[in-house]
Structure formats: structure tokens, C-alpha cells
């Protein structure tokens, strides 16, 4: 990987993060009506004195440019503000709720990406056969079924036929590994299914394209084993677009986790941001969205770096 490519991608990263920070910052300032009055209206009586006090506390009485400068400087230093209702730094509240979301997302990526490779390779190898058609139809169904609907149906199924299985809530892995994994099975399946369906179809398409290349024909002419051709030569080239899609899909899983956490009563960032919205706790909403969007951008930056390592032509 060339230093020039690395520098250009890093500059792109900074530009994107700068744009994200502006959008997140303007969320509160551009909502219809008086944002401070809306915040106060959730839990207390609205008076001019209380509006002025809250504006001063969260810095909304300053010019917009100064507000952004103070906020972004604090964010760079690890200070994203204070929760209106608890008085705690919002980073502490995010830190207390981030690990269930991280675990749910990582497990979903491992399941979705891990199973999509053999499934896509099988569809490419068995092209046109009945089993391949059935799997392909299942993949299309996986793309169309909403994750939250699948989660609700799976909860009903477990409650009806497996009443002894714990399907709701969250237990830290360090406290109860088996209980943690038991509660994570259904949400991971619901969240990873669209990713599995999409990536398996991508692997199938990429492998079929690779199998039509001249070097594959040459290998066949030399009498190379069919499975060796498929799983070593074709699959290796199919993994290049696959890795890029994994990064994008992993970012979108963060958004899907918000709904899945609500369905399965998992105390992660999803439930935190929805609760903050209900309470009009906009500093917490602002900080949580910034953290999640930053994670999305960083994941895609790392995928770009990995892509350049796998295929050095990209960085030239």
C-alpha cells in the first residue's frame, strides 16, 4: 500500500467525519420550534427562566459558529456534553450501553459473513440444480423479510414451543457465558439474515464471473481438480468485492441493531437513543448518533485499507 493512497484515504476520512459532525450538530438547531422548550416540555413546566437556564447550560445562547466550535473541540477531547436529565457525561452513558450493541453487531457480522462464503460457493458450484434454486429462493426471501418481523415471530415461536429458553434481555458474557449466548441467538439470526442473503448472492455472482475467466479454463484444461478450482482459485478472487460489501453491511447493521434491541429488550445504544428521543434528551441523542455514524465511517475506512492490501492495484 502506497503512502500516497493512505494519505488520500485518511484525508477523505477527515472530510467525511467533518461533514457528519456538521449534520449531527445541526439536528437540534434545525428542528421546528424551540428545541429547548421541547426538551423541557417532556418533564417539567416551561417558563422563560427555565428556557434561558437550559439554553445557557447547553450553550444554545451562543452564536451558531461558536456553538459548533466549542462542541467539536470538546468532542475531539472526549467531551460530548452532559445528559440533561441525569447530569452525567453522555460518553459515560454511551459507554454503559455500547457493549451489547458491539457484541450483537460483531456476532451478526460473523454469522452473516461467515456462512455466506460456503453458501455462495455452493450456489456457484451447483448452478442450475434444484438445491441451488431452493437456496437462491431462500436468499431472496431473506432480503425481503424485515428483521424486526422475523424477531417478533421467533420470540412467539420460542414462547410457544420452547418456553424454557430465555429469548429476551441481556446478560454480560463475563457474568454468564451460556446465558449470554442463549439470549443472543435469536437477535443475531434476525439481524444477520439480510446480510447473509445479500452476501451469499454476491459470492455466487462473483464466483460465476471468476469461473468464466481464461485462467480457470486453463486450470481445467490441465486437469486440475474441480473443487480445487472452485474453492481455491475462483473463491479467492470472489472475496475481493465480498470484503468491501462486508464493511458496508457491517455499518448498516448498526442501524438495524436499534430496532432489534427494542424487540428483544437488549439495553444497547439502540434503546439508549430511542429513550433519549422520548425524553427529548437531545445532547444524548446527538452524541449517540455521532458515535454510531463515526463507527460506520471508520469501518468503511478500514475496509478500504484491507481492500488495498488484498489487491495492491487499488492503491496505484
Automatic annotation (TrEMBL):
Question: Which keywords are on file for this protein?
Answer: Cell membrane, Membrane, Transmembrane, Transmembrane helix, Transport
Q: Does the keyword Nucleotide-binding apply?
A: no
Tell where it localizes: Cell membrane
Fetch the CDD domains from UniProt: TM_PBP2 (cd06261)
Q: Where are its TM segments located? A: 12-31, 98-121, 133-161, 181-199, 238-264, 284-310
Q: Origin, by domain of life?
A: Bacteria
Query: In what residue span(s) does the ABC transmembrane type-1 domain sit?
Result: 98-303
Bilayer disposition of the protein: Multi-pass membrane protein
Q: Does the keyword DNA-binding apply?
A: no
Which family, according to UniProt? Belongs to the binding-protein-dependent transport system permease family.
The protein's name = ABC transporter permease
The organism's lineage is: Bacteria, Pseudomonadati, Pseudomonadota, Alphaproteobacteria, Hyphomicrobiales
